[in-house]
């Protein structure tokens, strides 16, 4: 559990109600602070009839962005690409290109096949050919991970469940990226566990590039930048893979530069908790979150002209537990939190953030004009939809967001 981290941030937050920016923009670092694990990586890319040429070009941009973050070489990461539609074309194998520059040039030359969608056939080809020693894959005894990233936009015309299970049993870690009207069941049948980390969905090819950061972080092995002192934080440094975030001690607020702190005073706030109630959280952890929320409520000065508190739970859908201002004292709020039941389904964090922005702080839901708006998001892992656009919109609208992680 990462509860200690949550408690640290919460102490910082509630000592200063006028907090202007609870979560700073992470400082991204590569080079000596971030190297990628040696990996045998194969992209399995759908170029069937439903993928327009302009969309396929965007897939190639996504591939190139991921490749840019890798340490490519014979003793580092090797990369292959399978292009598929009704048949499978081995664009290049793990042994073909030994430099990043050569890989990037090869990706530019890939052309779509423009026929059917035989995803199962492509995964079978990866098992039987792409990840063999003859095609450049390293022996299992070497400890090098085998990773396949499947990108598809439609329903396969063959089965994927059994062949994907065979791939996973053979030691291949499978990621599934779905685009547009893709069948989500198919993605879940392809992907490795945990599904929250291995299944991604984007609405269209125009935004697939945004997923590149996820895979850059997934392949990144970093030093603890905070413990080494390699950061610019004035007061508190919080490490994360490939980056760090600055925070402030009790009685201070983080400035817009994301690094320095100013002393602050208290004021009224509209505070909404957004709680992940997905199946992966598990009932016992959900109860811990409820207890933690009530600890926070106990530390807040609740009242008509002080703090108003609202609560929203989400999983595959969003449910408002109670709006801002419904309860005017801590006892009623804490009782309502205790009664909250566990939804136990998927993890649609992007959808929930959009609901938080568009609905919970409105006047009709108890929001007060001129009062600071604060959202605290509890989540246990990767969302099944995209969150960055919603989070950016929230910050642009002047709401501060604290996003503690609640799970192992």
From TrEMBL:
Entry keyword annotation includes Protease: no
Record carries keyword Coiled coil: yes
Domain VWFA: 40-215, 270-408
Sorted UniProt keywords: Coiled coil, Disulfide bond, EGF-like domain, Glycoprotein, Repeat, Secreted, Signal
Entry's Gene Ontology molecular function annotations: calcium ion binding
Subcellular location: Secreted
Recorded GO CC terms: extracellular matrix; extracellular region
CDD domains in the cross-refs: vWA_Matrilin (cd01475)
Pfam families: FXa_inhibition, VWA
Signal peptide limits: 1-20
Function, as annotated: A major component of the extracellular matrix of non-articular cartilage. Binds to type 2 collagens and forms long concatenated protein networks as part of the extracellular matrix. Required for the network-like organization and bundling of collagen fibrils surrounding chondrocytes in the zones of maturation and hypertrophy. Required for mechanotransduction and adaption to mechanical loading in cartilage chondrocytes, resulting in an increase in expression of the extracellular matrix components ACAN and COL2A1. Acts as a moderator of angiogenesis in response to injury.
PANTHER family, per the entry: CARTILAGE MATRIX PROTEIN, COLLAGEN ALPHA
Name of the featured protein: Matrilin-1
């Amino acid at each position: 559990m990462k509860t200690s981290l949550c408690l640290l941030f919460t102490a910082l937050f509630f000592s200063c109600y006028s907090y202007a920016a609870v979560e700073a923009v992470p400082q991204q670092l590569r080079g000596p602070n971030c190297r990628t694990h040696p990996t045998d990586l194969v992209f399995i890319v759908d170029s069937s009839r439903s993928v327009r040429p302009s969309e396929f070009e965007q897939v190639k941009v996504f591939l190139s962005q991921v490749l840019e973050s890798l340490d490519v070489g014979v003793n580092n990461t090797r990369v292959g690409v399978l292009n598929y539609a009704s048949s499978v074309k081995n664009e290049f194998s793990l042994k073909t290109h030994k430099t990043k520059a050569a890989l990037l040039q090869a990706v530019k030359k890939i052309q779509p096949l423009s026929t059917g969608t035989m995803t199962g056939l492509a995964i079978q080809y990866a098992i039987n050919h792409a990840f063999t020693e003859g095609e450049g894959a390293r022996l299992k005894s070497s400890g090098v991970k085998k990773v396949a990233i499947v990108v598809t936009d439609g329903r396969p015309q063959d089965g994927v469940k059994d062949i994907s299970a065979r791939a996973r049993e053979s030691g291949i870690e499978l990621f599934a990226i779905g685009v547009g009207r893709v069948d989500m069941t198919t993605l879940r049948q392809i992907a490795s566990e945990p599904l929250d980390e291995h299944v991604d969905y984007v609405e269209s090819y125009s935004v697939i590039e945004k997923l590149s950061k996820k895979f850059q972080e997934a392949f990144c092995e970093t030093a603890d930048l905070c413990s080494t002192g390699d950061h610019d934080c004035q007061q508190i440094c919080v490490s994360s893979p490939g980056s760090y975030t600055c925070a402030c001690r009790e009685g201070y607020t983080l400035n817009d530069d994301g690094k320095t702190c100013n002393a602050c005073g208290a004021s009224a706030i509209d505070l909404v908790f957004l709680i992940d109630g997905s199946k992966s959280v598990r009932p016992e952890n959900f109860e811990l979150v409820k207890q933690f929320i009530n600890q926070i409520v106990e530390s807040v000065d609740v009242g008509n002209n002080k703090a108003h508190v609202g609560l929203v739970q989400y999983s595959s859908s969003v449910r408002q537990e109670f709006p801002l201002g419904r309860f005017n004292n801590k006892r009623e709020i804490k009782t309502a939190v205790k009664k909250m039941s566990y939804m136990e389904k998927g993890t649609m964090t992007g959808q929930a953030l959009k609901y938080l922005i568009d609905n919970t702080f409105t006047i009709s839901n108890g929001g007060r004009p001129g009062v600071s708006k604060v959202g605290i998001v509890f989540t246990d892992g990767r969302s099944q939809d995209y969150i960055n656009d919603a989070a950016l919109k929230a910050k642009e609208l002047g709401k501060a967001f604290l996003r503690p992680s609640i799970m192992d």
